[in-house]
Automatic annotation (TrEMBL):
<keyword id="KW-0238">DNA-binding</keyword>
<dbReference type="InterPro" id="IPR000485">
    <property type="entry name" value="AsnC-type_HTH_dom"/>
</dbReference>
<dbReference type="GO" id="GO:0043565">
    <property type="term" value="F:sequence-specific DNA binding"/>
</dbReference>
<keyword id="KW-0804">Transcription</keyword>
<feature type="domain" description="HTH asnC-type">
    <location>
        <begin position="6"/>
        <end position="67"/>
    </location>
</feature>
<keyword id="KW-0805">Transcription regulation</keyword>
<protein>
    <submittedName>
        <fullName>Transcriptional regulator, AsnC family</fullName>
    </submittedName>
</protein>
<dbReference type="Pfam" id="PF13412">
    <property type="entry name" value="HTH_24"/>
</dbReference>
<dbReference type="InterPro" id="IPR036390">
    <property type="entry name" value="WH_DNA-bd_sf"/>
</dbReference>
<dbReference type="InterPro" id="IPR036388">
    <property type="entry name" value="WH-like_DNA-bd_sf"/>
</dbReference>
<dbReference type="InterPro" id="IPR011008">
    <property type="entry name" value="Dimeric_a/b-barrel"/>
</dbReference>
<dbReference type="InterPro" id="IPR019887">
    <property type="entry name" value="Tscrpt_reg_AsnC/Lrp_C"/>
</dbReference>
<dbReference type="Pfam" id="PF01037">
    <property type="entry name" value="AsnC_trans_reg"/>
</dbReference>
<dbReference type="GO" id="GO:0043200">
    <property type="term" value="P:response to amino acid"/>
</dbReference>
<dbReference type="InterPro" id="IPR019888">
    <property type="entry name" value="Tscrpt_reg_AsnC-like"/>
</dbReference>
<dbReference type="GO" id="GO:0005829">
    <property type="term" value="C:cytosol"/>
</dbReference>
Length: 168
């Protein structure tokens, strides 16, 4: 197995993509004074290594009418039901995150809805899942910040300390 180490150019490419995942490779190449082929090859290598898993768009949920955010702590009847309940949660499009947790709740999820009445309907859907004994809901009064890019910039800088094994 060959080893692959992220170098400074990989990190610069990642920095640009963190800020705008849709930026054309030609623009990334121009910003870094390298060829677009080089950008393409490096991004493909990082995708093969699963350092980059996908690119995503960012939307304004408020403009779409999804202004209500709540967090739901879920208690299960039995711990071994977590996988089944997670599959059912994934089928509800208004559940945008779900986590297996330790502590008070077995599962913890985030919902985004069009308002209180809609949130109540979604919470009832969650409570109706076989294996859920009950839930507790916390309403988000305001999202103060939601910034994954700061962590990504730092995490990618730390990645160059490690070797990644590839099959090539």
């Amino acid at each position: 197995m060959a080893k692959y180490r992220l170098d400074e150019m990989d990190l610069k490419i990642l920095d640009i993509l963190i800020e705008d995942a849709r930026k054309p490779y030609i623009d990334v190449a121009k910003a870094l004074d390298i060829s677009s082929g080089t950008v393409n090859v490096r991004i493909r290598k990082m995708e093969e290594l699963e350092i980059i898993k996908s690119s995503a768009i960012s939307v304004d949920y408020e403009r779409m009418g999804y202004t209500f955010i709540a967090y739901v702590g879920i208690f299960l009847e039995r711990n071994h039901q977590a996988e089944y309940v997670l599959e059912q949660l994934e089928a509800i499009p208004f559940v945008t995150e779900a986590h297996i947790t330790s502590g008070k709740y077995n599962l913890f999820c985030k919902i985004r809805t069009k308002g209180v009445k809609h949130a109540k309907e979604v919470i009832y859907m969650i409570d109706d899942i076989q294996g859920v004994s009950r839930s507790e809901t916390m309403i988000s009064m305001e999202e103060a910040f939601n910034d994954k890019s700061r962590l990504l910039h730092k995490a990618f800088r730390e990645l160059d300390l490690y070797d990644f094994l590839t099959t090539k």
